[in-house]
Amino acid sequence: xxxxxxxxxxxxxxxxxxxxxxxxxxxxxxxxxxxxxxxxxxxxxxxxxxxxxxxxxxxxxxxxxxxxxxxxxxxxxxxxxxxxxxxxxxxxxxxxxxxxxxxxxxxxxxxxxxxxxxxxxxxxxxxxxxxxxxxxxxxxxxxxxxxxxxxxxxxxxxxxxxxxxxxxxxxxxxxxxxxxxxxxxxxxxxxxxxxxxxxxxxxxxxxxxxxxxxxxxxxxxxxxxxxxxxxxxxxxxxxxxxxxxxxxxxxxxxxxxxxxxxxxxxxxxxxxxxxxxxxxxxxxxxxxxxxxxxxxxxxxxxxxxxxxxxxxxxxxxxxxxxxxxxxxxxxxxxxxxxxxxxxxxxxxxxxxxxxxxxxxxxxxxxxxxxxxxxxxxxxxxxxxxxxxxxxxxxxxxxxxxxxxxxxxxxxxxxxxxxxxxxxxxxxxxxxxxxxxxxxxxxxxxxxxxxxxxxxxxxxxxxxxxxxxxxxxxxxxxxxxxxxxxxxxxxxxxxxxxxxxxxxxxxxxxxxxxxx
Length: 515
Fold this sequence. Notes:
By secondary structure, this protein is of the alpha/beta class. 52% of the residues lie in helices and 11% in strands. The chain has helices spanning 10-36, 81-88, 117-136, 152-163, 199-210, 234-244, 255-279, 292-306, 320-340, 374-402, 412-434, 438-458, 465-488, 494-511, and strands at 40-47, 50-57, 64-70, 93-97, 140-150, 169-173, 189-194, 217-222.
């Protein structure tokens, strides 16, 4: 008879080894966010329904320049906070705003995603509120108002400055269109564009720079960055700091993004030992499935074609309505294929929870075996509730603290469950049609990403889908990794889909504009 050596059990050791890196990443991320706020003071107010955030750094004698910083489509004041930190350290007062339909602003942006006349009027109205508020502040020089904008915000601030000669200077980052700007206006215009952006952005910047006084306009191409990363490039921040006219050194632009990334990493790693503790290990055997590549191709092809006609396209969530319809249609087709595709043998029935494989299970942090029967079902339901709540915190908290606004406001509260239903349908279909095989499952997610990209390129989907696809791809990969962990723990088929639906739906429903 063998005797087990005394000491810490292997499962406990593995839990500790996976938990420690997760806790370390969360700790470093939290410290980084605290340090990013060091030396700056913020004040949040709402004026005329527009949420505004004032940012200052250090005492300055006399009145300071005032800088309004405007975000782009599907952005928010929080996304632009690194630029506000840079501006504030030049001795100016930075004022961030959430345009209608974005961030903490519950108002809808009419025509969002179409650059319609009503959209431009709403953006100009919000800029009017921000500029007027800035001029009322006792420490701001009303003759030194500067506007900074990115993408949609760049178009808004250049048009506003062109019609308001009292604006001292303007910065347009990734300007989408400058054809309607009067020649030579606005004066004092800095144009910044990423070297890896779509060619149209660089063409617009070059054409706009040529139409003004060479002494009053400057064009900067930041190499190696695209439409979003241009906001975090050191060159961008140095150019903005110089245009504002300060002499201070810009802070590390990616401090908040890196800290948020560490929080996301810690949350992702922490999921593994948590699943082990809640579910243990009871893996299901492989099961016959339809030819995944054929089924996925047909499903995503039909999804991109039908989504624009589905009722979900009329949801007041720009781009999000189309994406939700695509996921619902594609998911429904995947579920139908898993249910009705002819398979050999008795396993052709609709996949469901499977019996455990005989023999000892390979080790996953947590208990070596899980209970069976009703007790197992109750445990799965409790684990599902806890893991779903964990998923909300894992995706919402880091994004909101270090990247962009991720808290629901206004209509987002009822849009969130609708978007989650679309995600749940798609992930359930993917789970069933792949039989829980992780590589096939990941391939179905990749096919959805490629289909959305292709649909936007050929005009089946809104063009702004191209801006959403990178985030969607990251979330799909994250969800696929967590789904693999849950399968190893013998989770019921519905649990990976439920947890993944939250992970996908939350950023989509809270970051895309209300329209």
